[in-house]
Amino acid sequence: MKHRIVVLGAGYAGANAAGRLAKRLHPADTEITLVNADPDFVERVRLHQLAAGQDLLPRALTDVFAGTGVHVRLARVTAVDAERKIVDVVEADGPGEIPYDTLVYALGSTAGNCGVPGVAEHAHNIAGKQPALRLRASLAGLAEGGTVLVVGGGLTGIEAVTEIAEARPDLEVSLAARGGLGDWLGERAQGHLRKAFDRLGITLHEHTDIASVEPTGAVTADGRAIPAQVTVWTAGFAVHPIAAATTLQVSATGQIVVDDTMRSVSHADVYAVGDAALAPGASGTPLRMSCASGVPTAYQAADAIAARLTGRQLPQNKIGYNGQCISLGRHDAVMQWVTPDDQPKPSAVTGKMAARLKELICKAAAWSISHPTSMFPTRRRHAIPAEEALAIAA
């Protein structure tokens, strides 16, 4: 009997995990199913570009995984029964169940409202393709002089506000940040950010807490109104609530708690990768939600699963960071070099060179999705009897 591996979610983490598993394990021994609600791979790191009016290259998952041995199942996950090893889904023809022997949970994250009133009702987000398209339509409907407010001074907020300001110089665009602009970056990178904001005419509201979002803008904690016809919320992300509704051990954020191999600390047949996991890096510090964390955790989980099924040595956790690359429109960016535990180094690349580096990184990430079984180790058959491998995996 084949070992059934089910991967939930086909974002950067889930798609890379499925592709690496397909290359690591022989189809005669394993059956790999990738479950995703959207038929296309969503290039999430470019959703600010989609919202600003640019079109992204479509990548149908069935085409991406054709001939790899990965079966793509288009369905929305509604629940996971970690005791019965069953995933409940809703497909085009109705509800269904998918049994598994090993589960890779990669449902990622969505926009979080941080408990701020009015965010869900009156603010846009770019945490998914459909929200980005709705924002795109709203921006297209603004006349010259229209007002846009982006809330959140993190990577997503900075990329969104600069992309919008560059694409629509006729709009009045502003950013509200709880801290200082890029205050987690080095001095050189912070200085370049400020120059880019000045060049693009972006109004900056630093050290500003947003207390509520209204149809006409936002209200700060000190009662000041920031007018906006369109408000974009990037101040936080939240994981899907499915894991928290299971018997899996999760953190206060709802992320599945995993060990160095991305294996659930409470259920040995479940792995979690990407934003869905509270995962340690090589230094033991929890990894941040990002594509830079998602792909390495996917590789780590896939390699660990393959090692356990074939009786080989488990991979060491060497996950760390090299840099944070922030696009500032299409022709400008900041590449902040960081330590493996994500602390800024004094050096940074800025301007057009950084923009080229950012584009190269985005293209490389997309290439890894489009070629899911390329440049990975050779497939391996079970080195031990299938029954024993199943017991080890469990």
TrEMBL record:
<feature type="domain" description="FAD/NAD(P)-binding">
    <location>
        <begin position="4"/>
        <end position="292"/>
    </location>
</feature>
<dbReference type="InterPro" id="IPR023753">
    <property type="entry name" value="FAD/NAD-binding_dom"/>
</dbReference>
<protein>
    <submittedName>
        <fullName>NADH dehydrogenase, FAD-containing subunit</fullName>
    </submittedName>
</protein>
<dbReference type="Pfam" id="PF07992">
    <property type="entry name" value="Pyr_redox_2"/>
</dbReference>
<dbReference type="GO" id="GO:0019646">
    <property type="term" value="P:aerobic electron transport chain"/>
</dbReference>
<keyword id="KW-0285">Flavoprotein</keyword>
<keyword id="KW-0560">Oxidoreductase</keyword>
<dbReference type="GO" id="GO:0003955">
    <property type="term" value="F:NAD(P)H dehydrogenase (quinone) activity"/>
</dbReference>
<comment type="similarity">
    <text>Belongs to the NADH dehydrogenase family.</text>
</comment>
<keyword id="KW-0274">FAD</keyword>
<dbReference type="InterPro" id="IPR036188">
    <property type="entry name" value="FAD/NAD-bd_sf"/>
</dbReference>
<dbReference type="InterPro" id="IPR051169">
    <property type="entry name" value="NADH-Q_oxidoreductase"/>
</dbReference>
